[in-house]
Amino acid sequence: MSRGQARALAAALLLLAAVWGPAPAPAQEEAPQAKPEDLGIEERLRIDYVLIDFIVLDEDDNPVPDVTLEQLRLKVAGEKVAIQTLDRHCAQAPGATQQPQPTEPGEAAPSSAAVPRPRIVLVFDYDHMTKSPEVFDRALDMMAASAAGGEQQMIVSFAEVVRLETPFTTDIDELRWALRRMRNDRDLFAKQRAPLTEQEFFERLRAIFDLLGGYDGRKTVVLFSGPFMSDGFTYDERYHDVAGLAAAARTAIYPVDAAGLRTPDLSIDSRRRRPVDTRAGSVGGPPELSRLATETGGRMTSNTNDIGQAYEQAKRDLACTYTLGFRDPKLQLDRDLNLSLKIEGRDNLRVVYPDRYIVRSEKARRESLVRTAALAPHVFESADVGVDLFVTGAKGGSWKGVIAAELHLPPEAVAAEGESWKLESFLRKPNGTIVHHFTRSVDLPKPEPGRPVVARTFEELEPPAGDYALSVVLADPRGEPRASTRSIHIPEVPQQGPFLLGPILGHGEGSDFSPLVEQAAQAGEALDALTVFCVAGTGGDDLRSNVARRLVDAGERDVHRLAEAPGEIQGGGVRCQKVLDKLDTKSLAPGKYEIRARGEAGQWVTDESGTEFEIEAEPQPSPAPDRR
After folding, report:
1. Mean pLDDT (whole number) for 100-129
2. What is the pLDDT of residue 625?
3. 455 beta partners
4. Residues 372-384: pLDDT tens digits?
5. Taking CA 449 as the corner, what is the angle to CA 446 and CA 455, rounded to the nearest 5 degrees?
6. pLDDT, tens only, 307-325
7. Is the pLDDT of residue 195 over 60?
């Protein structure tokens, strides 16, 4: 498991706590042990071996646990294909799991590990979900009424971004806490809008499959959504992609028409014994959602106030699933092919399976993961990349700032000098609305053994006041993306009195000043500190000013007092004085320090402001090899 994936869910909760509200205690369940780009263990063994999950139901929609390999007939792209293995995963009791049971003695699919706990993902689609408070009320009732079965469950929201509201957990109280928080989350509620097209919805589904592909076994997505808009576009190819990727991620979609929360004009479907709304035309619900269910091997819930029906169906279906394995001698990477699966000799049974499958190339998977990282950057958190926003000045009622992205890559990750990696950064409101976005190609220097490859890039902007989530995504041409996220709070520009910006550590001066994301330097390395002292709302009088700075060590002892910087603040409105200090790092022993500043202008005096940094010891050269 990659370093970014290992910290995925913890970083997600940290981001939610800082920007979207407090998070519950960490879940009992551990993060997945597979990399998110892995589509299943069979691909690591042999790329032409394909696993397909399915369920078998009788006339009363009850799972059937006794289907054998000889009874199944599989076609791929219209041609008969031999099924080589068939595993049955049926629980003896709710929440219990078994070892996979091959139907043929001595035969086993490539995965011989114990069956993991069933996994259910509750996805709330804010673009299509109407009456969201009622949906959450009924979801809370659904969770309270459901018997604890030991399933691992996760809650996700589709807003401007794909938000992991909880990690996978068996703690029902944690899930209910998240649902209550989401019900009252104004940022999510305000997100509801009519999109111009449905392209974003399919991108979010693809992101879910990328994320769930790193977990073993079959997963189920219970999707609370609603009818799609008529935008004049056809999405047949996107549905095909969804079906293929769902099969590859071993995930089925169980859509819930949240618009079905209605009571008038109800009749009873005598065969299924379920309430239906005869005004809806088709009792199958919105055709878009019904198609998602049919083509991914899931089941549809619509025209009922009992939205927990899909949840219970998902739990029951996960309790008895099958996995078949076959080899495709004509496999073509990145091409989805249709499937047909039937049972011979038992006409009363129904097979629910994905309509298509796909095996993606490494290139296609990497490109897809980069798009997913843009929607869910916290899942790909990595110490190799950092990002921050620095306010460097003010003019009138607006701030001036810069976004700094900083790379510290291991030398083995870079193939050659001058290699360019794509970097993308987003500044988003808490509901995910993008406020600022930029894309860069970053040229990397020549890698040196034992030293990280360091590169930086910057973007100037005028950030409005508010709370934000700042992220950066770095596309690795040979591996999974690396990302960094942090919460940002930008206050209103003061209308009266003095304020201090910084000190900000970096390199350069004037308009060429470049802030450092990692507050560290080696002894002897150039290091500058920018301090901006401003006064607002004092009329047009010129004010004599002074900025005092001092350097202290970890024990709060003065290491060095820099020469005072007298000046004159002129003009009206918000007026600023900038002071740039070049720090003598040669005289500093390795350790932690803090540069502190205070501003004075007339009767105005600021509190002291400080920025911590670290002086690192120079790396020692490797000893020469012993040639004796």
Report:
1. 63
2. 52
3. 407
4. 999 889 889 999 9
5. 40
6. 778 888 888 898 899 999 9
7. yes
pLDDT of residue 273: 37
In whole angstroms, what is the distance from residue 125 CA to residue 162 CA? Answer: 10
The CATH code belonging to domain 115-362 is 3.40.50.410
For the record, the structure tokens of 445 come out as 């220097």
| Six token digits for residue 79 | 């041609």
Reply yes or no on domain 494-617 having CATH 1.10.260.40: no
Long-range own/partner contacts, residues 342-347 (CB < 8 A, 24 or more apart): 342/72, 342/73, 343/56, 343/67, 343/71, 343/72, 343/73, 344/71, 344/72, 344/73, 345/71, 346/67, 346/71
The DSSP H or E segment spanning 155 is strand 152-158
Whether residue 119 contacts residue 213, with contact meaning beta carbons closer than 8 Å, is answered with: no
Q: Tokens 């929607």 label which residue?
A: 375
Amino acid in the structure at residue 300: M
Please tell me whether the peptide bond between 410 and the residue prior to it is cis, using omega within 30 degrees of 0: no
Helix/strand/coil for 381: strand
> Rounded to an integer, what distance in angstroms lies between the CA atom of residue 83 and that of residue 85?
6
The answer on pLDDT for 41 being more than 60 is no
Residue 427 has pLDDT above 90, yes or no: yes
First to last CA, the chain: 41
C-alpha 415/C-alpha 477 separation (Å) is 10
Which stretch of 308-312, 468-472, 537-541, 559-563 has the lowest confidence by average pLDDT? 537-541
CA atoms within 13 A on the CB side of 105: 0
**Helices vs strands, H then E, count in the chain:** 11, 34
Q: In the predicted model, what is the mean pLDDT of residues 429-449? A: 89
Q: Classify burial at 147, counting beta carbons within 10 Å of its beta carbon; exposed 0-12, middle 13-18, buried 19 or more.
A: exposed
CA angle in degrees (0–180, nearest 5) for 501-503-506: 120
Quick count: other Cβ atoms within 10 Å of Cβ 34?
17
- Averaged pLDDT for residues 562-575: 83
Pick from 162, 190, 184, 206: nearest CA to 426? 162
Q: Sign of dihedral through CA atoms 365, 371, 375, 381?
A: positive
Distance CA 163, CA 94 (A): 29
CB distance 34 to 215 below 8 Å: yes
Give the integer Cα–Cα distance in Å for 549 and 562: 6
Query: Per residue in 490-500, pLDDT tens?
Result: 999 998 889 99
Given the structure tokens 């809806």, which residue do they identify? 280
Name which residue leads in pLDDT, 88 or 283.
88
Q: Name the burial class of residue 77, with classes exposed (0-12), middle (13-18) and buried (19+) by CB atoms within 10 angstroms of its CB.
A: middle
DSSP 564-617: PEEEEE-SSSEEEEEEEEEE-GGGSPSEEEEEEEEEEETTEEPPPEEEEEEEEP
Please name the residue that has the structure tokens 């350790």: 591
Neighbour tally for 45: CB within 10 Å: 10
Q: Where are the domains of the chain?
A: 115-362, 494-617
- The residue whose two tokens read 């402001």 is 609
Query: What kind and span of H or E run contains 211?
Result: helix 199-212
State pTM to two decimals.
0.78
Task: Find the length of the chain.
Answer: 628
Q: What secondary structure, in 3-state letters, does 435-481 show?
A: EEEEEEEEECCCCCCCCCEEEEEEEEECCCCEEEEEEEEECCCCCCC
- pLDDT band, very low/low/confident/very high, at 279 (cuts 50, 70, 90): very low
